[in-house]
Amino acid sequence: MQLVHIKLIFAAIFWGSSAIAGKILLETALPSQVTFLRFFLAFIILGLFLLTNRKHFSKVTFFEHVKLAVLGFIGIALCYYFYFEGLNYSSAFNAGLLEATIPLVTLAISVSMGEEKFHLENTIGFIIAYVGVIIIISNLELSVIINSNYNFGDILLLIGTLCFGIYNVLLKKIPI
Predict the structure, then answer these.
(1) 3-state secondary structure string, 45-82?
(2) In sequence order, which ranges of the chain are alpha helices (DSSP H)?
(3) DSSP 8-state assignment for residue 100
(4) Is the pLDDT reported for residue 149 higher than 60?
(5) Which of 35, 65, 76, 174 has its CA at a distance of 20 to 30 angstroms from the CA of residue 43?
(6) How many Cβ atoms from other residues are within 10 Å of residue 134's Cβ?
(7) Cα–Cα nearest to 87, from 44, 38, 142, 45
């Protein structure tokens, strides 16, 4: 097995376990505190990496900092605030499944902005995926769909997914 495969396995494990870890943390902390803790720890780790590898990075201009701040606010701060707030009201299972729709949301935003074209295969996959999301949110109860009585946490999770989809599209559009 190559090193890249091992890294991908660990990435999947860490990404997949984040909903469970977040749910456990939410038993003792507020969603905003969990969000802050997650990114404060990442800030420390990345800061140490940057300090030890300074020669590999070029200088970032003021305008690049502004672009990165906007992207970070939409795709990281808002996305994960809504993620942990939604996780507070929903289950780790729903969070994981709804988070898996990020590529679909990204595709929908990209198509609506004229960045990509929809093909038949994409359309069929998109519909099947969103039917799955509706099944998860509604628990196959038609009354839930008709009365729009969705779980508040699931709606917040979808808003977080939307934020990350916007981030993905803007990341392509805004060169840094």
Answers:
(1) HHHHHHHHCHHHCCCCCHHHHHHHHHHHHHHHHHHHHH
(2) 3-25, 31-52, 62-72, 79-89, 92-99, 102-112, 120-138, 142-147, 152-173
(3) T
(4) no
(5) 174
(6) 13
(7) 38
Q: What is the pLDDT of residues 12-59, one digit of tens each?
A: 788 778 888 888 988 999 988 888 888 898 889 988 888 887 766 667
Instruction: Label residue 120 left, alpha or beta by phi (over 0 means left) and psi (-120 to 50 means alpha).
Output: alpha
Long-range own/partner contacts, residues 30-39 (CB < 8 A, 24 or more apart): 31/81, 31/84, 31/85, 31/87, 31/88, 32/81, 32/84, 32/85, 34/84, 35/77, 35/80, 35/81, 35/83, 35/84, 38/80, 38/84, 39/76, 39/77, 39/80
Distance between CA atoms of residues 158 and 94, nearest Å: 10
Return d(Cα 148, Cα 119) in angstroms, integer: 30
